[in-house]
Amino acid sequence: MRVSDDGESKCFAVMAEIAAQCRTRKRADFRRVFCHKKLVSKLLSSGKVEDMFNCIPVLNFMIGGNAPETILSLKSGDKWQLINWNKVIRIVKSLQARIVKAVKAQKWNRVRDLQRLLTNSTCAKLLAVRKVTENKGKRTVGIDKEIWDSAEKKYNAAENLSNKGYKALAVRRIKIPKSNGKLRPLGIPTMRDRAMQALHLLGLDPVSETLADTTSYGFRPYRSCADAMNKCHKMLAKKVSPTWILEGDIKGCFDNISHEWLLENIPMNKRVLKQWLKSGYLEKQQLFPTKDGTPQGSVISPTLANMVLDGMVSAIDTALNIKRMHRDGSNKNPHKIHLIRYADDFVVTASNKEVLEEKVKPAIVEFLAKRGLELSKEKTFITQIDQGFDFWAKPLENIRANSISDQARRTLRPFYRKYRRLFTKIGQLKQLNYCIF
Predict the structure, then answer these.
(1) Residue 11's CB: how many other CB atoms inside 10 A?
(2) Cα atoms in the Cβ-side hemisphere of radius 13 Å centred on 65
(3) N or C terminus: fewer CB in 10 A for the chain?
(4) Exposure of 106 by Cβ count < 10 A (0-12 exposed, 13-18 middle, 19+ buried)?
């Protein structure tokens, strides 16, 4: 399996031999991240690489010490530049789709095995390193003052990313001003800890999205605050809509989540999760322990917070004996209870004030108490929609007068007039032709 003296490359014969030797499931995805044959020929013709072997990234992972010397001598920066990211993403998404199927079938042992397979996959490691090195915080350092700003550092980081022997470092505590004048604490992990969190998030995200509440919009892919506002309009803009709302806000949501609840209910590697939760934080050159909460600023914290709050709709439905979507398509919801949540801010609708005070609010308080959380007394109100309310720091006033349906009706009115005239003319022409012929 060497290159001949006359310069003829034996690359594809080598690859076939390697594929025959490496058939384990753990190594099954390495061959598929290589560059395409057309890209290889283009690089060779341009003179950017000296040999065909230099166009095969990640190959030394497959056979280790048995790899040809030509492949082992390849620079890490060149390997990173030649990765086919479309295939990497496709492989990771295929494993995530299998995790979703296992979650829907309630096969949790299968979910655990697929998560382990995904976190040990080189494709997932490469994608995790790419995520933390190409976002807005890529130059924000942790307590080790290290950043991965070169292709060589990125590839070496992906190569060394592993659960074996991993120990999380403390986060660097900084504080940023809030809109009300107070300071919000943020925890900045090291680059290695961020990459590990992004790696395990690839296996946890399919679980959280499958089990998430349908009316949750914060920190979720393809959802935004505008979608939550749109849902509020749809729920409250009609004449038969509920007239009372409970504006809820959770006091210190990220800082007070129970570690015990997270370790018992989050389906991921418990040892790694415990290290992130108990790593502590460094502020003014002093190390402080963390007993509760997840640091704001971590890659995985928004998903953990969402998974903690998911199930609030079911808790309210159980307390009020609400049954949604029967087999015949009907709903048993006489009090018109609906919940719309964006991160730790939420709105609950109802037809009268007493239901919110006596049943809905106690159910939410009990639900949050199990997770170590509580409602903020300063930001939790029960109001009538005619008075207006704030949702995610955006005021909603006269919501029925400015409903989306009314706006759409006003916008489409000119088009209705235009096409009404057109159809009238077409009908007249048809009638005229019928009379002539």
Answers:
(1) 22
(2) 0
(3) C
(4) exposed
**2-5 CB contacts, 8 Å cutoff, 24+ apart:** 2/68, 3/51, 3/53, 3/70
Q: What is the rounded distance in angstroms from the CA atom of residue 37 to the CA atom of residue 56?
A: 10
359: buried, middle or exposed (CB in 10 Å: 19+, 13-18, 0-12)?
A: middle
Max alpha carbon distance in the chain (Å)? Answer: 96
Quote the pLDDT of residue 410: 58
By DSSP bridging, strand 183-188 and strand 286-288 are unpaired
pLDDT in tens, 145-188: 999 999 999 999 999 999 998 999 999 999 988 877 788 889 99
67: helix, strand or coil? coil
pLDDT tens track for 84-139:
899 999 999 999 999 999 999 999 999 999 999 999 999 999 999 999 999 988 99
Distance CA 198, CA 140 (A): 16
Q: What's the token pair of residue 60?
A: 């030394």
With tokens 């639900």, the residue in question is 367
175 and 185 in contact (C-beta within 8 Å)?
A: yes
SS3 state at 248: strand
pTM for this one?
0.76
Distance CA 179, CA 304 (A): 25
Instruction: Answer with the residue of higher pLDDT: 437 or 387.
Output: 387
Residue 45's pLDDT band (cuts 50, 70, 90): low
**Are 320 and 337 spatial neighbours (Cβ–Cβ below 8 Å)?**
yes
8 A C-beta contact, residue 343 and residue 218: yes
Q: How confident is the model at residue 428, as a pLDDT?
A: 67
Exposed, middle or buried: residue 100 (CB in 10 Å: 0-12, 13-18, 19+)? middle
Strand partners of residue 52: none
Residue 321 vs residues 82, 334, 360, 362: alpha-carbon distances, Å: 57, 10, 11, 14
